[in-house]
Design brief:
666 residues, alpha/beta, 33% helix, elongated
């Protein structure tokens, strides 16, 4: 066996004769991290020859390997590759490195076939990971290529799905597929399903014009139609009553979706009792479950790559990455217009939302309801057909009022999270996370642990923690009193002084620590008060994450610091209606919506609020990223300041703090 890691291990020289190994940086990097050093020339003892699947250039490496008695390493794209096909120029997120064969070629066993036939595949943790992976792929509509428009309407259910493939693809020819075999498959689909509609699913590369398939308009009839819309395979499989394929990966996904597909070729997933096979597989006499098949093919077999950390990673990390990428593409591919956006924000909005098509900034929403349009926060509150955008809850290293751009933004096409007078998308997400799968629980637990251990909060402005008197300590966070979350989310208690007075009256013997809002401390917003006789300590310029380790309770109107307290197992009392109130996790003395009847755990609240709801931008690569990457960047100190002109503008904003309504528009 060849070495699998590079750190501290003997490395293997890999001689290649395909230009792609040299020109494709991502492929080179994954091979390097897997322990291979790419070389040109002729191999010697101990060296390995690398070839790309059954590509047109593979014969070069095969001939040299045979002549020099060198072992082969066959390289292929992993079963989850990227957002778009490789022919569109996108780098892969994983590779299959096989030392014995090709997963799609039954002529000889591959490493994957050996795993499937001989590995115990009985480890509970491994199978739980597999079940979670299947559920996530289905939930997120992840496939080999995942640029699907999930808003498209699927065809009426009850059809038979026949899967086309790219003409003369290596996976087709290895299964002895040709035009006649595909015609036979289409005839069989009709004969075995009398009266049923037949949909021919076009291959993604055929749809994008890269390679032709085997079916054409000549194969269509009143029963047979061609389906080439960019619809998720998971949605398409859900409405199918049968699936027919030669060797397409869609057959593998059909198994995961609950089908027992008819297989006319010899792909890796056939012969294990999960398919109806035209061929007999003498080497494959084992019966597997879906979870076992998935565990071998997706967890154990590939080499997955994390481009944000530049390291090999686990399968789950790739799903995290694709979740961020697909969400961004699906929201942005039609192009956005935006109105009411301040000038300093536009560049950053363009970086986040204008990657597919450049954003257009307008004075008002377009009349066309199908044109995605966004406004900031609660502006144009009663406008229909708009998406509202706001800062996320892990925002930046520095204040928004100082015009430091955010690493996270939350979009909401129902309402806005800080306005409890109306529903929001975040509310719906929290309610849906009342029940979590084990994989979701694990991810939320890890996220909380990393936030707490790294002392990360919304703004991460640093500061120390004052020495606090002994006793039962209650932290009272001040807020910006003209902030929309106060104007919309409070009733009886609406000012910092009222909040502090109410807390003292209810807790006469407690040690009350008042923390002014950082925007107020910076003289950028309104909300400064006289705390004499009400607070025992005023924690000026203090790190909220450190303060939370020193107190037993938090009393707040709507501050995000209440949510951050929950992450650290600190008891929270609310006097307003913040997004985290009303779910049974806080003591609520204010008015919270009766519609918040679900009872999620803290993990469910965190999953909805930090994983499902915001979008994150990696300040290092400029790419959409998972929350874990944004958290790491904040912990490492990235994104601390804006440019010199932005700092000057923020100072001018402070001069005119009494006219905050002017500066805060948009």
């Amino acid at each position: 066996m060849y070495p699998e890691t590079s750190a501290g291990a003997d490395r293997t020289r890999l001689f290649v004769y395909n230009g792609g190994f040299l020109t494709e940086r991502r492929i080179r990097r994954i091979l390097t991290l897997a322990g291979y050093d790419i070389r040109l020339g002729l191999p010697k003892d101990g060296d390995v020859v690398g070839i790309w699947g059954n590509s047109p250039t593979a014969h070069r490496g095969l001939n040299i390997a045979e002549k020099h008695n060198a072992p082969l390493l066959r390289v292929e794209d992993a079963f989850i590759r990227s957002l778009h096909p490789g022919r569109s120029g996108e780098a892969p997120l994983g590779l299959l490195l096989d030392q014995t064969g090709l997963h799609f070629d039954p002529a000889q066993p591959s490493d994957l076939e050996t795993l499937l036939s001989s590995h115990p595949l009985d480890d509970t943790a491994l199978l739980n990971r597999a079940r979670g992976g299947i559920a996530r792929m289905k939930e997120l509509h992840i496939s080999k290529y995942s640029a699907f428009d999930t808003a498209l309407s699927p065809p009426d259910p009850g059809y038979v799905l026949v899967v086309d493939q790219a003409r003369d693809d290596a996976s087709v020819t290895a299964s002895k597929g040709d035009a006649a075999r595909f015609r036979e498959m289409l005839v069989m689909a009709q004969e075995e399903n009398p009266g049923a509609r037949v949909l021919i699913k076009a291959h993604p590369e055929t749809i994008e014009g890269h390679r032709p398939g085997y079916y054409s308009e000549q194969d269509l009839s009143d029963r047979v139609t061609l389906f080439d819309a960019p619809l998720s395979p998971w949605t398409l499989l859900e409405g199918a009553v049968g699936v027919y394929t030669l060797s397409s990966q869609l057959g593998f996904e059909a198994i995961l979706a609950g089908h027992k597909p008819r297989i006319f070729g010899e792909p890796f997933y056939a012969g294990w009792g999960l398919t109806q096979d035209e061929h007999f597989f003498p080497r494959r006499q084992r019966t597997l479950t879906r979870a076992q098949l998935f565990a071998a093919a997706m967890v154990l077999y590939p080499k997955w790559y994390d481009p944000f950390q530049d390291q090999l990673c686990e399968f789950e990390t790739v799903l995290d990455i694709l979740e961020a990428q697909t969400r961004a593409w699906r929201q942005d591919h039609k192009g956005w217009t935006a109105s009411g956006m301040r000038l300093w924000k536009r560049k950053h909005l363009q970086q986040i939302f204008g990657r597919e098509k450049k954003m257009r900034f307008t004075t008002e929403a377009p009349e066309n309801p199908d044109q995605p349009h966004m406004v900031w926060g609660n502006h144009a509150r009663d406008a229909g057909h708009v998406t509202r955008v706001e800062d996320g809850f892990l925002r930046s290293r520095g204040l928004g009022a100082r015009l430091v751009p955010p690493l996270s933004l939350a979009t909401d096409d129902i309402g806005v999270y800080y306005d409890p007078t109306r529903p929001s998308q975040l509310e719906e997400m929290i309610a849906r996370r009342e029940t979590l799968r084990p994989d979701q629980q694990i991810r939320a637990e890890k996220l909380i642990s990393r936030i707490v251990s790294a002392n990360v909060s919304k703004y991460n402005t640093g500061g120390s923690c004052p020495e606090l008197p002994e006793g039962h300590r209650i932290l009272v966070p001040g807020q910006v009193e003209d902030d929309a979350s106060i104007l919309l989310g409070t009733n009886n208690v609406r000012t910092n002084l009222e909040l502090l007075r109410t807390t003292r009256e209810a807790n006469p013997d407690a040690v009350i620590v008042y923390k002014p809002h950082p925007d107020v401390e910076a003289k950028l917003r309104e909300g400064e008060i006289d705390t004499a006789g009400l607070a025992d300590v005023v924690a000026v310029n203090s790190d909220p994450a450190l303060l939370l380790t020193q107190v037993q309770e938090v009393w707040t109107m709507t501050s995000l610091l209440g949510f951050e307290a929950l992450l650290r197992s600190v008891s929270v009392t609310t006097l307003g209606g913040p997004f985290y109130a009303g779910w049974g996790l806080t003591q609520d003395l204010g008015s919270v919506p009766a519609r918040r009847g679900a009872r999620p755990s803290l993990l469910g609240l965190v999953h909805a609020s930090l994983i499902d709801y915001p979008r994150y931008l990696d300040p290092v690569t400029g790419q959409p990223c998972p929350v874990e990457v944004a958290l790491q960047r904040l912990a490492d100190g990235y994104g601390a300041t804006g440019g010199a002109s932005v700092r000057l503008l923020s100072k001018l904003q402070g001069v005119f703090a009494t006219h905050a309504h002017f500066w805060r528009r948009g």
